[in-house]
């Protein structure tokens, strides 16, 4: 961030002090620190993971954005870059990992598969987009998105962080420290605990005409 | 241009009573009655010499009320293969003897046929689901099993045009999402059986020696699916005695994206971009295997220039695959991230060429039936020449100097992960790992496809069959690929690049074809069955990663858990093609 | 000597480290943030720093680059947008994941189909960027875009208005293809005119 962006408008700083003094708001400093060192979680699932690694490699250096620290452990990561197709077998692990991440946490759905199922949407083992289970902040379409598109998406995330305010963020509100997303489990098919009553009703409805026949 | 013959013309029916030739139009091979399968398999391996079992797959012939299990076997001495099939009635339970006692490499492939079709294999050492989870309802690849987002039997769907009002598929599905449950299912009252129970039971079937007379407990360690070193969402469960592995079971299916079911709904051409996503490092080679199989069915000839372009793109793909393998391997070993950055630099330059020629860096979608989609312009050709003649030899030499004599590297790789020559053949290992065990089997020489018989290149072979040899043989292969590229670039003729007019609906006559290519990771085979309609009846992909993993347990038992990571790295798997 | 391999490896990394700066001296300050510098760093002579600093430096996309499709319209005299698409439906049929939805418009009086799309949707969350729609369109109406900066905060279902871009934009991103298609169109028109005269 250049000093001009950091300064709050309306304050007149004399020329000789411009390099030394900045008058800004707590929100701006807080967000500046957070957006300049987002640590992604190494979470490549499929082909998009290769473009994610390529974005981290020497040509499209993510270290210029402060994102070179890719931690496999969710406890040490800020950003879950879901890169690749989300399958039903994998979804319990993904939700569990999301729960284990500490606030503030962000999710970027990279690629068509993570955004909305992608070309494999009709597969019997595919979840049509990770936003069915966890909240997504930025969607990056493409199959796979080129590393430059990924970097653009991450810049959009940085913009989103810039617009957050300490007074309104989720983790400083009163209430429980963290709200855990219930982990889905694998039965005859993937069962989302939040939709159990719905599944029960629909399955009963399907059984009723068969019983009536 | 040669069209390889799949089966020999020797009269097997006379040598082996009970056998009959497959006389369906467009089909080839032999039909074996189920009760004679074990006998015939032993006969084929020992007497006829077909020691490398390449592929085991199943086909659901709903109308004829049959399941058919198709086997492809090859000789490591080279030459055409033997295809034989067993037909069993389509009923529950459907079972036939397993060939795992004869060819242990059939292990995972038979488990896949059980998982997706419900065919039981008697005498299989460990018959459980492999790609789907235990407890999943139904056998998805059967023709009468419909997925939750099912719209029509084949694409194109009628709902897209002319009255194509956009609607999300979720709104049309019965349960509002891509899930389906049996009628009357009550999730609150349903008690789950532990899906891991069978896995742990099979894990405990080992015998470990009692050292020093002290009986110790064994620790169960779960590695993955979220793991920095497993090259994707791959999970391995290991039983450890201290640090030594006594038993190890791979668990897959975390990236099972249903290529084969979706492939049956797609038309033949629509499958081409999906093949890109199998081994997502080598999309040029995946396309080639598929177009080879369909071109065999259609009987069309590819023009000369297109053949040369296919070879050029394929060999560039091989070089960047091996470079990436080196980079990722060194990441696993701990040299994070320098050799990977060097490898990625060369790869980026090769991907620039792919981007200029085909349109994208990774999912190239470059091959069509009868050639390639467009020609290479002069600027890209100049770039390729610059890379092949000047830059790549120097940079690969530099990587060699950087890494291959490193003492830490040698102490971690030498003598580890040994798999004997006989075991390599028996476990259906193909690709550089087979050649590192001492067998010079390369499909480009054994059963040439395209124009590979015109180039002068050697098949590198090493004999120690440990990790160091598997690493060094890939260095040798890069040199041979550069050699092929130099010859191809010099011999590149002018001419058209596609036979016939571009069509999005191709007519493929009925029959079956098995198109196999020497992909950088091993043998990549596409088994395509057509019944004359616009979409494949059965579309099976024999991927090298899936079959090479069969030998993982054998290589890892007795080594330390830290070595498991390097052994897995050198098997060279990609999850996109392992799980399909 | 034990350790020789390690020293050899370290000498390679040292050479690369020095090369990072020698190239800087050769180019003397004009190496970054211009097209020549980017071209040099993407060529076979690239030595030392390989980074292309997005977003200040953008790698030029080659002509054949394909991302999400767009619909081409010709600009009329009064600024009207004459969309080339006739809603023949071939792109919807050729699309492998079936991400194109077209509603063909019909004449309100007679009910017969009019070669114009009433609605045209592409679900970019399904599109696999394969390029079949552009490859098999007989009217050069749908082409693959070069714009990869389309990340957003919500799902991406693109409707007809979002998809329409002018033919001048197409000529700018794909000049060779456009020239080839223009000559083919001109030849066809000339042949038709000649036949009409005869």
Describe this structure in words.
The complex is a heterotrimer of chains A (213), B (580) and C (198). Chain A contains seven helices and six strands. In chain A, the strands form two sheets. Chain A has a four-stranded parallel sheet with strand order 1-2-3-4. A two-stranded antiparallel sheet of chain A has the order 5-6. In chain A, helix 5 links the parallel strand 3 and strand 4. Chain A folds into three domains: 35 residues, no CATH class; 134 residues, Rossmann fold; 29 residues, no CATH class. Chain A is α/β, with parallel strands linked by helices and 213 residues long. The model of chain A has no long low-confidence stretch (mean pLDDT 86). With 580 residues, chain B is an alpha+beta fold. Chain B folds into two domains: 111 residues, Beta Polymerase, domain 2 (2-Layer Sandwich), CATH 3.30.460; 321 residues, Orthogonal Bundle (Cytochrome-c3 Hydrogenase, chain B). Chain B has 20 helices and 15 strands. In chain B, helix 8 runs antiparallel to helix 9, helix 9 packs antiparallel against helix 10 and helix 10 runs antiparallel to helix 11. The relative contact order of chain B is 0.14. Chain C is of the alpha+beta class and 198 residues long. Chain C folds into two domains: 60 residues, no CATH class; 99 residues, Alpha-Beta Plaits, CATH 3.30.70. Chain C has seven helices and seven strands, in the order H-H-E-E-H-E-E-H-E-E-H-E-H-H. In chain C, the strands form two sheets. In chain C, strands 1, 2, 5 and 7 form a four-stranded mixed sheet that branches. Chain C has a three-stranded antiparallel sheet with strand order 3-4-6. Chain C starts with a helix and ends with a helix. Chains in contact: A-B, A-C, B-C.
């Amino acid at each position: 961030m250049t000093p001009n962006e950091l300064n709050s408008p309306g304050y007149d700083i004399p020329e000789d002090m411009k390099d030394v003094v900045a008058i800004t708001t707590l929100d701006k400093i807080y967000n500046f620190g957070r957006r300049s060192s987002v640590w992604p979680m190494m979470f490549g699932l499929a082909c998009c993971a290769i473009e994610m690694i390529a974005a981290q490699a020497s040509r499209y250096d993510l270290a210029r954005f402060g994102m070179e620290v890719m931690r496999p452990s969710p406890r040490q990561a800020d950003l879950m870059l879901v890169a690749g197709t989300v399958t039903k077998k994998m979804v319990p692990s993904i939700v569990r990992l999301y729960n284990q991440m500490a606030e503030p946490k962000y999710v970027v759905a990279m690629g068509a598969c993570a955004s909305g199922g992608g070309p494999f949407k009709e597969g019997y083992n595919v979840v049509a987009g990770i936003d069915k289970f966890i909240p997504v902040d930025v969607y990056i379409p493409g199959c796979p998105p080129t590393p430059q598109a990924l970097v653009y998406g991450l810049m959009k995330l940085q913009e989103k962080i810039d617009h957050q305010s300490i007074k309104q963020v989720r983790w400083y509100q009163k209430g429980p420290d963290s709200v855990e997303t219930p982990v889905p489990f694998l039965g005859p098919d993937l069962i989302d605990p939040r939709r159990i009553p719905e599944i029960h009703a629909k399955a009963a409805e399907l059984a009723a005409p068969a019983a009536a026949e | 241009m040669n069209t390889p013959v799949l089966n020999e013309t020797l009269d097997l029916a006379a040598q082996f009573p009970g056998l009959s030739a497959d006389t369906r139009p467009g089909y080839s091979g032999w039909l074996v009655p189920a009760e004679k399968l074990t006998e015939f398999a032993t006969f084929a391996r020992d007497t006829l010499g077909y020691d490398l079992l390449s592929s085991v797959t199943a086909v659901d012939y709903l109308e004829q009320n049959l399941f058919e299990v198709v086997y492809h076997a090859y000789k490591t001495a080279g030459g055409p293969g033997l295809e034989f099939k067993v037909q069993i009635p389509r009923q529950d339970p459907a079972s036939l003897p397993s060939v795992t006692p004869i060819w242990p490499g059939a292990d995972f492939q038979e488990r896949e046929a059980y998982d997706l079709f419900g065919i039981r294999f008697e005498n299989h050492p460990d018959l459980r689901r492999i790609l789907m989870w235990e407890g999943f309802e139904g056998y998805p690849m059967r023709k009468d099993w419909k997925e939750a987002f099912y719209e029509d039997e084949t694409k194109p769907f009628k709902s897209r045009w002319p009255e194509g009002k956009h609607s999300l598929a979720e709104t049309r599905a019965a349960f509002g999402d891509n899930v389906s449950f049996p009628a009357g299912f009550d999730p609150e009252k349903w008690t789950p059986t532990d899906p891991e129970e069978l896995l742990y039971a099979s894990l405990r079937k080992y015998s470990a020696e009692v050292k020093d007379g002290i009986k110790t407990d064994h620790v169960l360690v779960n590695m993955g699916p979220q793991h920095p070193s497993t090259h994707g969402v791959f999970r391995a469960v290991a039983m450890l005695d201290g640090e030594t592995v006594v038993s190890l079971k791979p668990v897959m299916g975390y990236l099972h994206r249903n290529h084969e079911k979706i492939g049956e709904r797609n038309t033949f051409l629509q499958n081409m971009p999906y093949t890109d996503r199998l081994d997502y490092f080598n999309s040029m080679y995946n396309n080639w295997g598929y177009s080879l199989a369909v071109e065999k069915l259609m009987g069309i000839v590819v023009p000369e220039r297109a053949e040369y372009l296919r070879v050029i793109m394929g060999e560039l793909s091989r070089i960047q695959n091996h470079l990436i393998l080196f980079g990722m391997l060194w990441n696993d070993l701990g040299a994070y991230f320098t050799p990977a950055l060097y490898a990625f630099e060369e790869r980026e330059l090769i991907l620039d060429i792919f981007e200029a020629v085909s349109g994208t860096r990774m999912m190239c979608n470059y091959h069509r039936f009868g050639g390639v989609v467009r020609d290479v312009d002069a600027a890209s050709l100049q770039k390729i020449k610059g890379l092949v003649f000047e830059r790549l030899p120097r940079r690969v030499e530099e990587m060699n100097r950087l890494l291959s004599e490193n003492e830490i590297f040698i102490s971690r790789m030498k003598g580890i992960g040994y798999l004997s020559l006989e075991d390599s053949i028996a476990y259906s290992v193909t690709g550089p790992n087979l050649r590192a065990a001492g067998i010079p089997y390369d499909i480009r020489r054994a059963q040439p496809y395209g124009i590979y018989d015109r180039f002068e290149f050697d098949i590198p072979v090493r004999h120690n069959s440990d990790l160091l040899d598997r690493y060094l043989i890939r260095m040798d292969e890069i040199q041979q690929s550069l050699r092929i590229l130099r010859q191809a670039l010099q011999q590149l003729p002018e001419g058209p690049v596609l036979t016939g007019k571009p069509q999005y609906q191709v007519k493929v006559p009925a029959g079956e074809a098995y198109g196999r290519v020497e992909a950088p990771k091993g043998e990549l085979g596409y088994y395509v069955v057509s019944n004359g309609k616009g979409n494949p009846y059965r579309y099976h992909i024999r991927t090298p990663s899936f079959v090479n993993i069969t030998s993982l347990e054998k290589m890892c038992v007795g080594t330390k858990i830290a070595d498991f990571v390097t052994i897995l790295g050198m098997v060279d798997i990609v999850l996109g093609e392992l799980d399909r | 000597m034990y350790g020789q391999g390690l020293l050899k490896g370290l000498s390679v990394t040292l050479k690369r480290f020095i090369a990072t700066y020698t190239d800087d001296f050769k180019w003397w300050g004009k190496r970054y943030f211009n097209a020549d510098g980017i071209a040099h760093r993407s060529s076979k002579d690239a030595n030392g720093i390989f980074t292309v600093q997005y977003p200040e430096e953008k790698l030029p996309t080659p002509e054949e680059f394909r991302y999400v499709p767009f619909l081409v319209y010709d600009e009329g005299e009064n600024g009207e947008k004459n969309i080339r698409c006739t809603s023949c439906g071939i792109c919807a049929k050729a699309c492998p994941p079936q991400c194109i939805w077209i509603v063909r418009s019909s004449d309100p009086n007679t009910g017969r189909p009019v070669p114009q799309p009433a609605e045209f949707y592409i679900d970019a969350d399904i599109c696999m960027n394969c390029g079949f729609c552009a490859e098999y369109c007989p009217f050069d109406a749908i082409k693959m875009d070069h714009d990869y900066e389309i990340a957003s905060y919500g799902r991406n279902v693109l409707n007809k208005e979002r998809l329409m871009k002018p033919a001048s934009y197409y000529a700018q991103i794909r000049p060779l293809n456009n020239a080839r298609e223009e000559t083919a169109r001109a030849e066809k028109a000339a042949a038709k005119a000649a036949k009409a005269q005869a």
